[in-house]
Amino acid sequence: MELKRKTIAKVIAAAFVFNLIVMGAGAWIAYQEAPPIPEQVVGPDGETLVTGEDIRDGKKAFQKNGLMNHGSILGNGAYYGADYTADSLELKTQYMRTYYAEERYGSEYKSLSTAEQAAVDDDVKQDLSGEYEGGNIEYSAAELYAHQQVRQEYVERYHEGSHERGVPEGMIDSEADARQFADFAMWTAWFSHTDRPGGEHSYTNDWPYEPAAGNDATGAAMTWSVIAMVLLVGAAGGGIWLYQSVSLPEPSAGDLSVPEPGDVSIFPSQRAALRFIPVAAGLFLAQVLLGGLLAHFYIERAGFFGVEEIFGVPILQLLPFAIAKTWHIDLGILWIAATWLGAGLFLPPLLTGHEPSRQSTYINTLLGAIVVVTVGGLGGIWLGSQGYFGDLWWIVGNEGLEYLEVGKLWQVGLFVGFGLWAVLSIRGLKPLLDREPVFGLAHMILYAGGSIALLFTAGFFFTPETNIAVTEFWRWWVVHMWVEGAFEFFIVAIIGLTLVSMNLLSRRSAEKAVMFQALLVMSTGVIGVSHHYWWVGMPDMWVPIGSVFSTLELLPLVFILYEALGQYRAMSETGGFPYKLPFMFIIASGVWNFVGAGVLGFFINLPLINYYEHGTYLTVGHAHAAMFGAFGFLALGMVTYMLQLAIKPGRWDGSWLRAAFWCWNVGLTLMVFVSVLPVGFLQLEAAFTGSYAAARSVAFYNQPIVQTLFWARLPGDTLIILGTAIYAADLIRKRFVLRRSEDDPTVEDMAVAEGVMGDD
């Protein structure tokens, strides 16, 4: 079956419109079906306990103080602290049991007989059952008592501090804010056990698993898990048939002339683009060092290898987990993005031989702007959490949502940066853009980069006062659609561009391959975001939709892996292929993408597994293998390729980069498969046999076997840090052997450009 580029382009356009319709309708439904914030929560005597404003202010306290990067809400956030929804629900049931045991039997719950405990349990479940009919939330006397006790506990824990839990003193700086945060958490607990009007399940589809509150997995979770497994088998067979049936070009070094690095001229704009690399490397090194600290916090929650006890240095107070986690996440996004931006500005001259006027000056300006936004954003996170910006904390300080931690001002700066990059890319690619159709390779690069910027705008559709369910709806547009949509699109586009620049693939052939894989990525990864909506307060219509599209997300990853293997074969066709080292990174990216995003992602996205697993260490394994393994290795591969072209002929030495490559791969393998995933499976068992709150408790993490597995992460983390240090040191020494750029470039100076520009 021969597919033409124009045909694929039409199908991509149709898929885009379909995605827009489905997710646009989903946005409307999100606002209609979000759990209601009542005007008041009242006790049995009608006295007001909580107002709607208290709940909204509690959400503000949650974001302002970075609590989403200490624990999680509705299963989303960090896994170090408690999940506030599950924790407050568990505490609510425990205090209600205490109340009824004392009222009915004049004794503690644990002292009651089995029959008496069963009677109390039934009373608690009876209080928590039923649907919301509008108006005020009316508490029973037991619920009122429980809410008051949870308030006090959260004040003691999050205001006064709890080193056992890794909570620094004054994490929430006032008792009033801590009480309102408790009100917010208890509201999420309320809608997790309260049925929707006319429905059979709670607003969260009965998540989290809490037998004492009557929460258990729904029949839909089981049914659609089975359907997803069947669909996977069918999709695998269909994928094999599709791969064999569709005539896609294979990279080949046999018939094409692969240019030697020394035959390719380096222009001023490319030297400017190279400056993104050391900046990104510095961010990368800071990220992995913080990652080591975060991993150790699970073992020693108030110190770092005894530093506090020996030297009296309060590590937890100086650098709380929430701040370190926030910086760790943001640095990971920033160093990968900075590298990709640099690569996107380095490659165009290879294909066009075109150097726009003052392009290098503009690239330097973009880099400077990125540095300003990075420093401002990371600094604002700390200053905002310390209360320095007053009511402007979420604008110039920290917005406090995972992956969208920086304030709106800095998010606007990043968005403007994307726009400047697009303008510079258009200037650099203009000779190709003028010659090719709208579905050409140069256009695809711009579409991929533009989709990243476009999806980022979803982060501006909410404020700290927005309902948490609606906030999560839009936040996942950015996070998931970036990672499993736009980023995957950018991967296939940038790899296609690289293959063309190496003369391994003609431009027309690369266009077809990129478009086909982009079609698969965009057709599954966009609507696939819906698997994040199962337990956050969205209606249960997303369970079947998310199950189907999450399963199909594995299909494009199989194609990307096949592509990587095909590239490996092309690389092996000739013993003199000069770019083996960059290809090692690109192939590793494809393998880790399949393993991390594909295999591990599919497993935890089965609804029945995700119901118990949501927000555990299994997700940590999936996230690290996918983010660093797929996107990080691609970025590092592009760095290697750029450096190999930019180093003086005869001075290239890839030995240090090769050593770093193996340190990273072995380290990531050890971290994920020896430590992180085993902890995740133990958590899954704890959730199955107890409750979700038990699987996220300090007691679980303090078990000897879990602590041993945390220590087992040390070799892997050390290798990753060592590899990054080697990489940073290698960049310093390579700085002194860079080639001079051409002052007056022409197409004839490029070993690749003439062939590409002539490829009609």
Automatic annotation (TrEMBL):
SUPFAM superfamilies: Cytochrome c oxidase subunit I-like. Gene3D superfamilies: Cytochrome c oxidase-like, subunit I domain (1.20.210.10). It comes from the Archaea. GO terms for biological process: aerobic respiration. The chain crosses the membrane at residues 12-31, 221-243, 276-299, 332-351, 363-389, 409-426, 438-462, 482-502, 514-535, 541-562, 583-604, 624-647, 659-682, 710-732. Keywords: Membrane, Transmembrane, Transmembrane helix. GO terms for molecular function: cytochrome-c oxidase activity; heme binding. This is Nitric oxide reductase. It comes from Haloarcula sebkhae.
